[in-house]
Amino acid sequence: MLSNRQNQILKMIVEYYVKQAKPVSSKQICKKLKCSSATVRSEMANLENEGLLEKTHTSSGRIPSEEGYRYYVDHLLEPKKMNGEDMLKLQIIFHNQSLDLSDCIKKSLQVVSDMTSYTAVVLGTASHENLLKEVSVVPLSDSQVIVIIVTDKGKVEHKTLNLDGVNVADVKKTVDLINKLVVGTPIDEVSAKLEFEVKPIIGNYVFQHEKLYDAIYNVFNDFVNPDINVVGRTKFLEQPEFSDVTKIKNLFSKLDNDDLIREIKHDNSNNIEVYIGSENSIDEDVTVIKTNFKSSSMDGTIAIIGPKRMEYDRVMSMLEYIKENIESDASS
Fold first, then answer.
1. Residues 32, 103: one domain?
2. Hey, which residues does 54 pair with through a beta bridge?
3. Half-sphere exposure of residue 92: CA atoms within 13 angstroms, side-chain side
4. Are 206 and 212 in contact (CB under 8 A)?
5. Cα distance between residue 248 and residue 243, in whole Å
6. What distance in Å separates the CA atoms of residue 82 and residue 117, rounded to the nearest whole number?
7. Structural domain includes residue 121
8. Which among 11, 43, 120, 314 would be 20 to 30 A from 32, CA to CA?
9. pLDDT score for 127
10. In the structure, what pLDDT confidence band is assigned to residue 301 with cuts at 50, 70 and 90?
11. What are φ and ψ of residue 130, in 5° steps?
């Protein structure tokens, strides 16, 4: 366990480095702690020996190691209230009655990304409490239709299908059959019901049933798979840690990988969770701060991805505020 003075020094180094993105010298610490430079250098050396600080090749100063950030988050981070400007910008979004919840979440994360210069992610799915209310179809042409799915909680999903050679009348028969047999089913159970109750009999009603069934089955499958929205990918270009072209290209390819992004939601914790460097599935040079949420209409995960040199307290307070506003929808 660290001494009080070591805790102070490590906390100061993390917070200075977050702000200035430059190694922190013993002189900066001395001015604040009002003790000798020799004492501070000795303590910094001890913290380096503990694996909590690192010395760069280009400076005599120190920067936090991955273990140093973890120790800071676990032991030294103090809860921070959102400042008035941050809160006001998010309040405006959640108080906008013309926006549905999904849009509120996306817009709030866009605001957070703009304010922090970090990347934001939302993964959302229709919650189990959503029951299928209606499936409808709108013909666009002889070969193209829009399938619209509506739940009892007001969540709407639509998808344009190209169905060359399929009679529009057959499409309507299929939709009528689904409405007759599947309406009232929890949305995440619809695919199974289609497979076991609709698929065996659809051939009795529809001529080209295989092509049509597969297309509509895929619409429902997309509905229950997480929507992925990544906001502010290019914010990493503003971070000095990612000035290397190879590094940034590698990171961008990972942010475009839906399977990697889905791994952000790998637990069911309702807390704010922090995954630093090697602890996350995205990249060892980033930190992922995330939380899961649950409202009456959707479940999901919101996350902020930034350099390990991140404003941890500010980001955590923003995510907590957004989560509370999302979940107030479930209790109202």
1. no
2. 63
3. 8
4. yes
5. 7
6. 17
7. no
8. 314
9. 62
10. very high
11. -70, 120
- If one compares 27 and 298, the residue with the highest pLDDT of the two is 27
Residue 15 lies in a domain: yes
Closest alpha carbon to 200 in 177, 183, 218? 177
Q: By three-state DSSP, how is residue 77 classified?
A: coil
Q: Is the pLDDT of residue 331 over 70?
A: no
DSSP letters for 269-310: --S-EEEEGGGSSS-TTEEEEEEEEE-SSEEEEEEEEEESS-
Q: Are 254 and 286 spatial neighbours (Cβ–Cβ below 8 Å)?
A: no
Q: Answer yes or no: are the C-beta atoms of 44 and 53 closer than 8 Å.
A: yes
Token output for 279: 């602890």
Same domain flag for 314 and 165: no
Distance of CA 198 to the CA centre of its chain: 35
Is the CA virtual torsion 114, 118, 123, 124 positive or negative?
A: negative
Residue 227 has pLDDT above 60, yes or no: yes
Do residue 93 and residue 177 come from a single domain?
no
> 187-225: per-residue pLDDT in tens?
888 889 999 999 999 888 888 788 888 888 888 877 776
**pTM greater than 0.85:** no
Rounded average pLDDT over 286-300:
89
Given this model, what pLDDT does residue 330 score?
A: 52
Report the pLDDT value the prediction gives residue 161, as an integer from 0 to 100: 85
Name the burial class of residue 286, with classes exposed (0-12), middle (13-18) and buried (19+) by CB atoms within 10 angstroms of its CB.
Answer: buried
230 and 266 within one domain: yes
236 domain-assigned:
yes
Round to whole Å and give the CA distance between 317 and 313: 6
